[in-house]
Design brief:
mainly beta; 18 strands
């Protein structure tokens, strides 16, 4: 009897060890903070902010091998402000991402709060600011995305496997409005190609309003090329709101590496009818290690009848949003650490 119990115990331990070998959970995060001097409408302000290059965050990601090439995956990720300790994304615990799903040879299917497929086209076609939609990025400062289509709740995403450099993903975000399958729902998709130094992508999103009578719509196309000595990108976006307002941001960027350092330049213009907004940003980065870097940014924008800001992280730099034909500038230095 004792031998049987010992054998069962050893079997349980072995099974647990095997399970542990096929499962993996990682704690990760980014802490990014900077000091910046803003000048808008002739008024100067100095402030400590969070998320200069990348939004500060912490998260858990995990995978479990299910056999046959299939895996269970999940991500729980929350944003926060280093300057105040407050939760980001409106106070949500996992406001950046919260999803679970399966992947394998068929691609992947995930459900939860996730980035819209068109967001990845913006990220991949402009890596001047590695955090994609950061406070300084012209895509963010010029309203490149509708607030509710960046990370839709209740979303189901299917992503294809990589087919010779070509990938695609499709999203359906449920509106969860009683009596209607279309009210508040979001549809989005992308098609991307990456091979060697070349990247090209196209994406769209369509979010119905609460009565299903109109939509916020977006079309985005972008491309990059890595010349070895420099990395250049171009992104074009067309937005049409449910109220009929149209905007057309155009962003050009270039990044030049110098050993442990990088210098980037981003130029952008947004148009809506005859109204315009022009924006620029110059970024310098220096890696102290694989996980820690110092950076400096100089940015500015000119409101020619269309809203913009030199630093979307700080209200002091956003006065230009309220003052047509006015400008704002920002000079900041910061540190970013990844774990």
């Amino acid at each position: 009897m004792n031998k049987k119990l010992i054998a069962l115990a050893l079997s349980a331990i072995a099974a647990g060890a095997a399970s542990a070998q096929t499962a993996n959970v990682t704690l990760y995060g980014i802490i990014d903070s900077y000091v910046a001097s803003h000048r808008a409408n002739g008024v100067s302000t100095t402030a400590l902010n969070s998320g200069g290059i990348s939004g500060s965050r912490w998260g858990l990601r995990g995978t479990e091998s299910l056999g046959g090439g299939m895996n269970a995956v999940f991500v729980l990720e929350g944003g926060f402000g280093v300057d105040t300790g407050a939760l980001g994304q409106g106070g949500l615990l996992f406001g950046r991402q919260a999803y679970v799903g399966l992947n394998g040879g068929f691609g992947s299917v995930t459900v939860g709060r996730q980035y819209s497929p068109n967001f990845y086209v913006a990220c991949n076609s402009d890596d001047t600011f590695g955090g994609c939609l950061t406070g300084w990025s012209a895509v963010a400062n010029m309203g490149g995305f509708f607030a509710n289509t960046l990370r839709p709740n209740n979303s189901i995403i299917y992503a294809t496997p990589n087919m010779g450099g070509i990938t695609a993903s499709m999203m359906w975000s449920l509106g969860e409005v009683a009596g209607s399958t279309s009210a508040n729902r979001t549809l989005a998709a992308n098609l991307q190609y990456k091979n060697g130094p070349i990247y090209a992508g196209v994406g769209f999103s369509d979010q119905k309003n609460a009565t299903s009578t109109a939509s916020d719509k977006q079309f985005i196309v972008g491309a990059t090329y890595n010349f070895g000595v420099a990395y250049a990108g171009l992104t074009y976006i067309e937005n049409k709101s449910a109220t009929g307002v149209k905007t057309k941001p155009l962003i050009a960027s270039v990044t030049v590496p110098f050993g442990a350092a990088r210098v980037g330049l981003q130029l952008a213009q947004n148009k809506s009818g005859s109204a315009k907004a022009n924006s620029y940003a110059v970024l310098g980065e220096y890696d102290l290690s694989k996980r820690t870097e110092l950076y400096a940014i100089w940015s500015g924008c000119k409101n020619k009848g269309l809203a913009c800001t030199s630093d979307g992280n700080n209200a002091a730099a956003s006065v230009a949003l309220l003052a047509p034909n006015k400008s704002s500038t920002t000079l900041g230095v910061g540190v970013k650490h990844k774990f």
